[in-house]
What we know:
Elements (H helix, E strand, L loop, with lengths): L1 H7 L3 E2 L2 E2 L10 H43 L1 E3 L4 E3 L8 E5 L2 H9 L5 E3 L7 H9 L1 E6 L3 H13 L4 E4 L11 H9 L2 E2 H7 L11 H4 L2 H16 L1 E5 L5 E6 L3 H5 L6 E4 L2 E2 L1 H9 L4 E3 L2 E2 L10 E3 L10
Parallel strand pairs: 5-6, 5-7, 7-8, 12-14, 13-15, 14-16
Antiparallel strand pairs: 1-2, 3-4, 8-9, 10-11, 10-12
Amino acid sequence: AIIAAGIESVDRIGPCKAEVTIEKVEDIRVAKRRNVIERAKEIVIEMVKESREELEDIAEAIRQSVQVEEIVYYGKDHLPAGPNVEKSDAIIIVEGRNDVLNLLKHGIKNAIGVDGTNIPQTIIDLCNEKIATAFVDGDRGGELILRELLQVADIDFVARAPKTREVEEISYKLIMKALKNKVPAEQYMENYGLKREKRIEKEEETLDEEELTYKKFFSEARENHSAIFLNKKGEEIGRVKVDSLVDELQKVKAHTIIFDGITTQRLLDVAFEQGVKIIVSPRMGEVTKIPKSISIITQDTNPKIFE
Length: 307
């Protein structure tokens, strides 16, 4: 302050008169400190922003990982599906794996994908058992798949993604809106002038003579809890209790075994030694080795035999 006052007392600079006025006295240390504080704020803001983005990336990566782990492959056609398809009373049929993943991302776990333009038998069977909603893309491809579904499967409701949009990309809000606005399949077909083809499914048309023989003997085996041995011509050559099947099998030369039980590794080993070619049983246990010479028919491979 004294120096500033001294400077203001100067009234001549060289040959000229002068008047000096001090407008402001500033401590440069304070100014530097202010600059340091402002810069520190900027650095902290950048750090927080980067940290938040990194946390969001980590959370998204974990969520996607969980979604991939949750997805299952259902039925003999190994279709991509949510984990609740088996136990849910209602299912949502979508076009493919990415659609299933997007629904999983938003907490919908009862979706299953047709995974192609040909509708698999697994989808047809599920539609016969559960309330089925077809949820397809809002484009031409979605329309074609929907028409095929309506012709071959027992679809109850129809939902569509917004026009030109795909199920795999739409948000939670649009998914919920589309499912909320679903319409009965019959109403949809009527609105678009579609007709469901009448399909006559006779057992004799879906099972060949050999399979009908297996079905007949399995029905008897289930009723009596027995195992039936057939020769190569499909004729019965013996009948024993299931409990003694393995022991009795060692005494006969059977071509086919039919019983209501579980095919075990021990049974397979003995059957192989005895030259058995076909085993018909609804379920298969934990088997590690299946001989190439033996054909096993179960409920998963041919369910109509066991109905």
